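$ run holo --ligand "pyridoxal-5'-phosphate" --emit tokens
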Amino acid sequence: MSKIAKEIVRFSREYFRENYISLHRPIFNGNEKKYLTECIDSNFVSSVGNSVNKFEEKFAEFTKSKYAISTINGTAALHLSLFALKVSSADEVITQALTFVATSNAIRYLGANPIFIDVDVDTMGLSYKSLKYFLENNVDVIDDQAINKKTKKVIKACLPMHTFGYPCKIDQIIKLCKKFRIPIIEDAAEGLGSYYKNKHLGTFGCLGTFSFNGNKIITTGGGGMIVTDDEILAKRLRHLSTTAKVNHKYNFYHDEIGFNYRLPSINAAMGIAQLESLKSFLVSKEQLNKKWKLLFVNLDVKMLEPIKHSNPNYWLNTIIVESLKQRDEILEYTNNNKVMTRPIWDLMTSLPEFKKCEHDGLKNSKWLVDRCINIPSSVVS
Ligand SMILES: *Cc1c(COP(=O)(O)O)cnc(C)c1O
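-- output --
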């Protein structure tokens, strides 16, 4: 068995000192229980309550966004964002082939067609170069709308994802999409606490979405958030997330089909405590990344590294090995030895639902899928 696999197991045992070592387990060493008790005592455990308002305020403050709108999970945040941008079954939405399935599912919930573009090897996020090539060769701007020459459909949005918390070249992507009149929703589900050019991920596009699933850098059990600086969009998102009920002392009047997507206060109570701990989580994760880096430099193994001007949250550490065979050997050995490691997601274009969708050559995406392994990355207290 390769030395790399053995070293991953040895280091993980020594560092985490746990029987079974997960890729990313949550940690609750702050005010979680206190705030949960307070929330229960208040009786307001559902989506109307102080905790959820406070969590949204604190989240907006942390990311330096004007508005933060909570949702029941990150997938709902994506769905609602696309809905608010009026994406419909007549439209297309650009995203990357290398992403978690939720990104593409959200597009399909609205009946729209995803177009899958390649990622960069150095960020694993949407490739500016590939996007530019696609737009310049396939898209006309007519009446302020991006029209796909082949399908004649409107490309209503572009949905880049910041993979494993490492920023993609979002400023270039924004500039390019502006030229083609395509609004950007950033899937920053993995990017809480990550910055590019000193700006928090999710705050570059017109909307940015986050997830607080159990495996993310902070968790509320399940939960999500949308951030924006656009007052009109913020109001609309809040309205849509609360069944489109028109505010009134006692009447039930809903002025359109809305969603029951707002985060319950009981989850938000945990979110407030987790957010308080986030700074210490980030310190711990950066330290772990340094230790992994040292180990792999000595083994001559490449790791995903932050690009210039980026400060990632180091959510998941990622190594890039030499071949599919080596990848599978390492996955087998480590998982057999109670150290959880994972390959990255199968490309969207290899899933039955997305097989027929338009895509470019996906050269980098295919290369990365065969070689990447996520290794244990939890915070230790
Ligand atoms: C986790 C995640 C989501 C979905 O979040 P949920 O809260 O699990 O619905 C979406 N996109 C990406 C990239 C994710 O990692």
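-- notes --
Residues 61 and 67 are 9 Å apart (CA to CA).
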